[in-house]
Amino acid sequence: MFETPFTIVGNIVTDPIHRRVGDQETVRFRVASNSRRRTAEGTWEPGNSLFVTVNCWGRVVAGVSAALVKGDPVIVVGHVYTSEYDDRDGNRRSSVEVRATSVGPDLARCTARIDRAKQQTDQQSTDQHDESGDPEVDEAEQSGDALPLTA
């Protein structure tokens, strides 16, 4: 099956809905991407909007559920497809949907703190980290705290 890669930058416009489908979990929400343009007078005017339904499966579910809410600026990467259905009046309709492979905050429009999941490491890996010479890094890694992002 041909899958079209797709990236959308926008805001979450619905509360993410967490569901269980069989033995898998899913999160679904809508994203609006709004364009704007500068007029000849130098002011901004709104342009077109694109609304996309985002479906998250697998490992993406935990991060989205824990971190994102309605109104958050996000970047969504995935594969786009259309879904067709009949509405209540019997009219044939279609919607644009994305099966997300990655979802994250748009750091151009917000700040974020990264919490890494604690992973079991063997003694050899721990010894290598202890020899890094940076006590702040070693302490943060051992406590599971996130380090600030720097450029």
From TrEMBL:
UniProt-listed Pfam families: SSB (PF00436)
Ranges annotated as biased composition (Acidic residues): 133-142
UniProt-annotated stretches for the region Disordered: 109-151
CDD domains named among the record's database cross-references: SSB_OBF
Keywords in alphabetical order: DNA-binding
Molecular-function annotations in GO: DNA binding
SUPFAM superfamilies recorded: Nucleic acid-binding proteins
Record has DNA-binding as a keyword: yes
Keyword check for S-adenosyl-L-methionine: no
Coiled-coil regions listed in the entry: none
Database matches in InterPro entries: NA-bd_OB-fold, Primosome_PriB/ssb, ssDNA-bd
UniProt-listed NCBIfam families: PRK05853.1 (NF004512), ssb (TIGR00621)
Protein name: Single-stranded DNA-binding protein
Gene: ssb
